Amino acid sequence: MKNIKIVLASIAVVIGVLISCDESDIELTNPNQLSGETFFKSSAQLESAVTATYTYLQETGNYARYQYYINDNVAGENYAAGNLEADKVQMINRDVDEANNGNNQYWQHNYQGIGRCNFVIANEANFENIPTGEIASRLGEARFIRALCYFNLVAKYGEIPLVLNLDNVQGGRSKSPVADVYEAIVADLRFAAANLPAKGTQEVGRATSGAAWALLGKVLLQSGDAAGAKTALANVTGYSLVDNYRDNFTVAGEHNDESIFEVLYDESTGGGDSWNQNGLGNSETSFRAMEYSGWYNVKPSQELLDEFEDGDTRYADSFYSIDDDDNGTMTNTFNNGTGTFTAGNIGPDDNPAWRKYQNLDDRESETTDSGINARVLRYADVLLMRAEAEIRSGGSETVALGFLNQVRARSSVALPPVTASGTAAILEAIKHERWVELAGEQSRWLDLQRFDGDTYLLPIPNIELQGNTNL
Predict the structure, then answer these.
(1) Phi and psi, residue 286, nearest 5°
(2) When you count CB atoms within 10 A of the terminal residue's CB, does the N or C end of the chain come out lower?
(3) How far apart are CA 409 and CA 241, in angstroms?
(4) Any alpha helices (H) in 123-260, and if so which ranges?
């Protein structure tokens, strides 16, 4: 399960040398000692380069920290409960500025991930002594990661520089239209879907054809192509909902039948230089557990809590609380039942706290070095996207409700089926179900854009404005 985590550190150091550069320059050219002309001469070297494309997903600007803060805070899923830093308060208030630290790291780490992918993709002509099928599969991985990074960016910033090669542009790249960025993402994902191995035949932790189809469906749905999303999502096969919802957010439940793509973390690697991650693989742990219910920097917003139907067990699976009047369900114990949350010891106030992605079920206190993987894509999301794509493309209401009600019928949830009719009512039911099913999973802001026409975007950060004179 953790194989890919173990090798990332040493591999990333090598590839860091290969593509090291001024971090403020998203061009990420390759001017140093080693080059693509001399490096890609074996399967092992190609594998090393591709493995290194995953590392910037793990970093603080991405799923180790700011991926969840930016999405959950801007989407209104959190409120500032503890000593929340100013850059994250800006996210809650939707007044993020160019100097915002999280904004800068998010931009930087996604573009640096793109740079590593470009290094692999642009050097295809230099691959030697590598079987053709292996080349296609490795390129599929790099193009999947590049597509994911670009989707992270275009959905948050709108028009952005589109860098698909290693060419050095004087002054930096200017912004590309949103449609052009989406076109590039779709092209990458179609290639990845056609060339990646399926789950079960791919090394655990790497991108699969199912992940590419699922992300393609999400991208097409976000860009307004519901019919295309419907077709793409129909190709996501071989997955099923796990009986226990809670199993999707623990170390023990990693890579289960519902999991489609995860960003990998491993507590055994330790913290390293966690706060100053630079893509060299010196830390492969996440801060989410400590920040959400260790320090209680944030707590779930009342609007989010109120969205849950009374008796929905996902409430107790997602939040710790001290009062079962909140929802009719409650989890108030931790550390294998030996600890109990009571008034005064569940953070700076007595409101519910996050349980999803937390380690407290089986320990006394949280850690800054959490090893719980970030679930980027899972099958419940696919089912709800299929429901949405079906109804938005003028399809069958019965089929759409069937996908939606599969999620509600999960064994540990067992809620009554939705019986709404009409496009507006069914879309409202899907919107509700997505919020409670995917709470705290960085989905809500994308949903607000599609369902409510939310137009808020982050500003291009200082790290780019200072180095790019063409913006």
Answers:
(1) -115, 150
(2) N
(3) 10
(4) 132-157, 178-195, 209-222, 226-233
Handedness of CA 373, 376, 380, 382 (dihedral sign): negative
CA distance linking residue 451 with residue 113, whole number of Å: 30
pTM above 0.70, yes or no: yes
Token readout for 120 is: 């692999």
Note the pLDDT of residue 270. 76
Q: Picking from 17-21, 72-76, 187-191, which range would have the lowest pLDDT averaged per residue?
A: 17-21
Compute CA distances 371 → 6, 205, 286, 291, 320, whole Å.
Answer: 13, 14, 6, 14, 20
CB 196 within 8 A of CB 188: no
DSSP secondary structure code for residue 286 in this structure? B
Strand partners, 135: none
DSSP string, 319-371: EE-S-GGGTS----EETTTTEE--TTSSSSSSS-EE-TT-SGGGSSS--SSB-
Q: What mean pLDDT do residues 445-471 have?
A: 97
CA 382 to chain centre: 14
**Tell me, what DSSP letter sits at residue 299?**
E
* Number of residues in the chain: 471
Q: Measured between alpha carbons, how far is 219 from 98 in angstroms, rounded to an integer?
A: 26
Q: How confident is the model at residue 315 (pLDDT cuts 50, 70, 90)?
A: very high
In terms of phi and psi (left: phi > 0; alpha: psi -120 to 50; beta: otherwise), the region of 169 is: beta
Cα separation of 151 and 91, whole Å?
Answer: 19
Bridge partners for 76 per DSSP: none
Tens digit of each residue's pLDDT (9 = 90 or more) over 108-161 = 999 999 999 999 999 999 999 999 999 999 999 999 999 999 999 999 999 999
What's the N-to-C CA distance of the chain in angstroms?
Answer: 43
- How much is the mean pLDDT over the chain? 92
Give 404's strand partners.
Answer: none
Q: Which residues contact 365 (CB under 8 A, 6 or more apart)?
A: 294
